[in-house]
Amino acid sequence: MRNYIIKRILLSILILFSVTFIIYAILRCLPASYVETMAMQLSTAPGAKPYDEWIAQLNASYGLDKGILAGYLVWLGDFAAGNFGDSWKFTVPVIQKFNDVIWLSFVMGGIAFILELVIAIPLGIIAATKQYSRADYAITAGALVGISLPTFFFATLLKLVFAVKLQWFDVSGLVGRNYAQLDSWGQFLDKANHLVLPITTLVIVSIGSLMRYTRTNMLEVLNADYIRTARAKGLSENKVIYKHAFRNTLIPLVTIVGGSLPGLFSGALITETIFSIPGIGFTSYQAMVIGDIPFSMFYMTFMAVLTLAGNLIADILYAVVDPRVRIA
Fold first, then answer.
1. What is the pLDDT of residues 180-227, one digit of tens each?
2. Is 270 in contact with 151 (CB distance < 8 Å)?
3. How far, in Å, CA of 302 to CA of 312, rounded?
4. Dihedral angle at the C-alpha atoms of 270, 274, 279, 280, nearest 10 degrees?
C-alpha cells in the first residue's frame, strides 16, 4: 500500500504540472484580457500615451511579454516559492481574496453534500428493495424531476414562492439589513436564514442522480447469487440488505464521494449568482471573465490538487469497504 501511494503521488505531481501548463496556456489565449481593458481605459485619459504603448508597458509589468512556456516557468517558480501574486481585478493578494470567499462556499457545499448523502442513499435503497412498488415509482419520479430541473429555474422558483410570496426569507444577499445591530448569535441565525434557499437548491438539483445511482447498483447486487444464498440460510431481510448487499454497493458510491471533494470547494456559480452569495464560484467567474490570470491560476491549480487527491482517496477506500479489493 505504501509503495502504491508513493507511486500515485509522484504520478499526480506529473499530472499537476501538465494540467497547470494547459490552464496557463488557455488563460493566455482567452479573448478576455485584463491588460487590454486597462490599456484602453488609460489611453482615453487626457494627454495619455497611445493604446499600443500602454499595452507594451502593462505586458512587461505582468510578464506577459514573454512566450507561454517562459511565462509559465516564471509563474511556476513564483508559485513554488509561495508567491501567488495580487489579483488584478480585486487588487488584493490572491490568497487573501481566496480565503475571504472559499469558506462560505465550503460550508454551503459541505452541508448540501451531507444532506444529499443522508437523503439520497436511503431512498435509493428503499426504491431498490421495493422495486415496482408505489414507493419505487414515487422515488424514481422525484429523482427524474431533480435531474431535469435546471438550477437557475429551480432557484428562481424558490425565490418566488418562499421569498416573494410567503416572505419567509430575503430575496438575495448573505445578511439582512439589521445584521450590524444583532448580537453574535443573531448574526449567525441571520446568515443561516439566508443560506436555506441556496442549500436547498443545491440539494434538490443534485440528489436525483445519486438516488438513481444507488438504486441501480443496489438492484444489481440484490440479484447476485450470494444474496440468494444468504436468504436461503435464513438471515433476516435487514441483515441481508444492510450487511451484505449495501456493503458491496459502497464501492461505486465511494467513487462519487471521492470525486465530490473538489466540489466542496469549487462553489456553485449559478446558485451563488442568483442568490447574490459572495462565494468562490461567483468570484472565480468574475476573475476569469476579466482575464485575471493570478487569481484564476491559483483557483484552478487548487481544484486540480483536490481532484487528484480525491481520486487517490477513492482508490484507497476501495480496499477499506471491500476486502476483495487489494492493491498490489
1. 888 888 888 888 888 999 999 988 888 888 888 888 888 888 888 888
2. yes
3. 16
4. 30
